[in-house]
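Is this the right way to post structure tokens for a design question? Let me know if I should format differently. Anyway, here goes:
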């Protein structure tokens, strides 16, 4: 009798565990991955201007790169005269490039999703559209949501043949960050001595190695 009860109890535990995994997912399922991405990118598609502690972000918390994640401060990059020449603040559309009128787009940019240039003041208006985060369009390589397509850059080679390059989140981050940092270092060489400042080949200054 005791043996029979033990078998029944064991079977109930196994079935309960299976049901839990089916409903909530195991740590290695896509459900867990989706939750991790949601936490890592809580400012996707938002009208909230991240300030203070919320401005201290981590780019690519689910990074698959050997170099690991990168710390990023939205406040300092937005309001501390971080333009390459160090004379002005960086405009919102320098990073949120779809948030500008089509007339303001410069190659290779082709997509405009806002009739006016995005600014802090423009975002305060009641009818202002939300600001998209990078990962809304620049997905992680190999993790494109169903029904979505990876953003691409279209150009032509020396012979006029069309070339298409996928702009996953890693490529998008590096294009934006490195282009600006390299330009700043060229205009202000003294920045190379500043703690935490990096250019294209200084991977481990920005990246927290995995």
């Amino acid at each position: 009798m005791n043996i029979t009860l033990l078998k029944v109890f064991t079977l109930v535990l196994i079935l309960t565990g299976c049901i839990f995994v089916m409903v909530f997912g195991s740590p290695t399922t896509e459900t867990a991955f989706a939750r991790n991405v949601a936490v890592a990118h809580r400012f996707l598609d938002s009208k909230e201007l991240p300030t203070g502690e919320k401005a201290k972000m981590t780019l690519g918390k689910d990074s698959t790169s050997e170099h690991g994640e990168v710390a990023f401060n939205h406040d300092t990059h937005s309001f501390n005269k971080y333009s390459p020449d160090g004379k002005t603040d960086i405009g919102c559309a320098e990073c949120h490039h779809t948030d500008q009128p089509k007339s303001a787009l410069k190659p290779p940019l082709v997509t405009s999703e806002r009739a006016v240039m995005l600014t802090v003041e423009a975002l305060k208006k009641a009818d202002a559209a939300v600001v998209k985060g990078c990962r809304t369009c620049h997905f992680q390589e190999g993790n494109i949501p169903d029904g979505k397509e990876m953003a691409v850059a279209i150009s032509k080679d020396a012979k006029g043949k069309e070339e298409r390059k996928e702009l996953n989140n890693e490529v998008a981050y590096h294009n934006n960050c490195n282009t600006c940092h390299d330009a700043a270092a060229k205009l202000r060489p003294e920045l190379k001595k500043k703690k935490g400042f990096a250019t294209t080949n200084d991977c481990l200054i920005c990246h927290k190695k995995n």
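Format looks fine. Someone answered above. Worth noting: Residues 56 and 73 are 5 Å apart (CA to CA). The helical segments are 2-24, 30-40, 74-79, 120-124, 169-187, 203-206.
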